[in-house]
Structure formats: C-alpha cells, structure tokens
Design a protein that fits this description.
Layout: E1 5-17, H1 18-28, E2 32-34, E3 46-54, H2 59-65, E4 70-78, E5 89-97, E6 100-107, H3 113-117, H4 125-128, H5 133-145, E7 148-162, E8 168-180, E9 194-195, E10 200-207, H6 213-221, H7 231-238
Antiparallel strand pairs: 1-6, 1-10, 2-7, 3-4, 3-7, 4-5, 5-6, 7-8, 8-9, 8-10
C-alpha cells in the first residue's frame, strides 16, 4: 500500500457574507491562480464530501469546541456525491498540535472501503497497511472511543494557490450541507440534508510560514476576524447530534 501523505501547516478560518467574499476573491486573483483540480462546469470549483467518525458522547466534537490543543479526528474523503470508480477515496486524520494543523491521508481501494466503515472488520486493515502508524492509531481510537461513521458533510470549494513564493492557499467553501449517515454514498438525493451557514462562505487560509503582505492588507481592510470553525462541528450541530454550550 502507498505510504501516508503528510501535510503540516497553519490554518486560519473566516466567515464571510457573499459581498465581502466576492470582493476578497476578486483581489486575490491578482496574486493567485486556481489550483489544478477546479472544474469549469462547477464554475471553477470542485465538490468535496467527507464522512466523519464520532461516538455517542460526541468526544471529537467537544474536543474541538473546548479548544483542546492536541486533538485528532478521522474521516473518509472523496470528490463525488455518487460512487465513481475513477474518483479517488482517501482515509484521513486531521489534527492539531498547539497552533499548527496536520493532515495525513492514504488512498483507499474501493474494495476495501467497508473495512473502514465496520468496527468489527477494522482489524483487517492491519494486514493491508502493515506497520502503518495512522491505521494503528485509528483502530486503537475506534475501540477506545467507540468511533463509528456518523456525519456526512458536502460542500463546493474554489481553491487558489500562490503564483510565486512560499506555500499559500485560499479556499472559498460554499453550499455546505450535512446529513446523519454511516455511508459515504447516500441514496437520499439530499432529501434529508440540512444546510449549514446558508448564504455564507467559509474562507480557509493555509500557509507554511507566513502570510503575504497583500493578504495582510486584505485582513486589515475588511477587518477580518479569525473564527474557530469546523465543518464537522457545523454538521453535527445542524443535525442535532451535539450542540455548543455557552457560559
């Protein structure tokens, strides 16, 4: 099996109304280009689907809401809302250590997808991914926390990357929907799906070392305020599976 793909970075998030989002995106085009995955038929966006693992106590949800400095969550990710053997499926762990985030992923062959979805079959993954720390941790966490696939989140993303210099990426995410399910490919055609942050854009800013000066000017000009926001948390909340408490 292919080794893990690992990415470490800083990640800032903002919630924007459509007017501000359009203005920022217009300015960003002076310095950035689309990444190689956009689909012209989707207005230079691409589709993202994530199936998140959680337990009956919403442990991952509250670790995020409570701002735990060291945390991780697991998900299956693909780029189609129906099964297509040509579209890759990835198993990912997304986590945070202090102020820095990381993402690790492995490609999942279609015939092995059910092994990730069934806790009783998880142990078989050890033979498919021998000595793989990510898989070992997943199986350990699955039994320790009793994790199971629980919440499906869809959205459309328009991504930009830096024309020059260090890694710097902007993604504008819209049309966020969520559904309670244990399947990566649902057959309900969105009839039971719920909207999350309807009419708003989630801007994600990802970088290795620093933010370019031109984007600092955008932050100041539009008085942007960072938000601790998670699509997983939004999906859980919208579906009534957990809720953020206030003092």
């Amino acid at each position: 099996m292919k080794e893990n793909q690992i990415l470490y970075r800083y990640e800032f998030k903002y919630i924007l109304n459509k007017k501000i989002s359009d203005q920022i995106e217009k300015e960003a085009r002076n310095f950035m280009i689309y990444d190689g995955h956009v689909n012209k038929e989707l207005n230079n966006k691409y589709f993202v689907r994530s199936l998140y693992f959680e337990n009956n106590f919403s442990s991952n949800f509250y670790e995020k809401v409570d701002g735990m400095k060291i945390r991780r969550k697991y998900r299956l990710r693909t780029y189609s809302n129906f099964f297509d053997p040509k579209v890759p499926i990835f198993f990912e762990v997304k986590g945070r250590i202090s102020e820095r985030t990381y993402k690790k992923r492995i490609n999942v062959k279609n015939k092995y997808l059910n092994l990730f979805l069934s806790q009783s079959q998880n142990f078989n993954l050890l033979n498919l991914y021998p000595n793989n720390e990510m898989i070992i941790n997943f199986i350990f966490d699955s039994f320790r926390k009793n994790l199971k696939p629980l919440i499906l989140v869809d959205y459309k993303r328009r991504p930009y990357i830096n024309k020059f210099g260090l890694y710097f990426r902007l993604t504008f995410d819209t049309n966020l929907l969520s559904s309670k399910t244990n399947n990566l490919f649902s057959n309900d055609k969105y009839s039971s799906w719920l909207e999350c942050k309807a009419g708003y854009t989630i801007l994600e800013v990802k970088f290795d070392r620093s933010i370019p000066a031109w984007f600092h000017r955008i932050i100041q000009c539009y008085n942007l305020k960072r938000k601790s926001i998670s699509k997983f948390v939004l999906g859980m909340s919208s579906c009534g599976l957990a809720r953020e408490t206030s003092d």
